[in-house]
Amino acid sequence: MVLIRENDFDEMSRCAADLIAAQLKRKPDSVLGLATGSSPLGVYRRLIELYEAGKVDFSRAYAVNLDEYCGLPATHPESYAYFMKENFFDHINIKPENTFIPNGNAADPVAECVRYDHLIGWLGGIDLQLLGIGFNGHVGFNEPSRHFIDETHRVKLTASTLEANGRFFPDGKPPAYAITVGMKTIMRAKTVVLIAGEEKFEIVKRAFTGAVTPEVPASILLDHPNAAVIYTGKETIE
């Protein structure tokens, strides 16, 4: 794993976007694992700029998203399906049929989790996985726990995650449950790129200077053979 310190959010976003663009140039039909939230917005804006400049092509690419809230239809303005369309998919030339997001409104969440794992396997796995990190160290919605959960699963979100994500909901109350890709799938991605703004500096330092522990889920990336953590902060993490 490599740690890359950038000066600010824009430089961090540019660095991550350039890695994704390079991946698509090497393999135009890459399977991209994508994340939501505020951290990747700069990455998506940069990728849209590169697409509009003719420097990156998504026409043969696939996208699989990490997670989705339970109980929200894809048309809900706070769903991650809606987020991806509004902030990325509708602005590039990726085929809608090549974009995949867990169905948070599925009648049978367990069956949906199994289906999503099979889908990723059918695609051949993820070539490059983009991640953010929560203030509690979660990646996707893999929350701190006593053990890592390998497969896609339904998870009860922690109080800190609900508080952090409440700002995106008019009533301040996000759904209590979500479907998230598990740690095995993330670790099987050929390349992982995790981004973290200055406000996440302390959890980045904790995650990547200590031991691998499910109590800080992101720390598992210390064992990934090709992971990059791009962060901003007051000092260099060594």
Describe the protein's architecture and organization.
By secondary structure, this protein is an alpha/beta fold. The chain has one domain: Rossmann fold. Helices cover 31% and strands 18% of the residues. It has 7 helices and 10 strands. The strands form 2 sheets. Strands 1-10-9-6-2-3-5 form a 7-stranded parallel sheet. A 3-stranded antiparallel sheet has the order 4-8-7, covered by helices on one side. The longest helix is centred in the first third of the chain and has 18 residues. The radius of gyration is 17 Å and the shape is globular. The termini are close together. The mean pLDDT is 96.
Keywords:
Rossmann fold, 18% strand, seven-stranded parallel beta sheet, 238 residues, three-stranded antiparallel beta sheet, alpha/beta, 7 helices, 31% helix
Taking pLDDT < 50 over at least 5 consecutive residues as the criterion, the unreliable ranges are none
CATH architecture field: 3-Layer(aba) Sandwich
Rough outline: globular
Query: How many separate structural domains?
Result: 1
Helicity range: 25-40%
CATH class: Alpha Beta
The secondary structure category is: alpha/beta
Q: And the CATH topology?
A: Rossmann fold
What would you report as the Rg, rounded to the nearest angstrom? 17 Å
With strands numbered from the N-terminus, the spatial order across the biggest sheet is: 1-10-9-6-2-3-5
Number of strands: 10
**What proportion strand?**
15-25%
Q: Average pLDDT, to the nearest integer? A: 96
Q: What summary fits the major beta sheet?
A: 7 strands, parallel
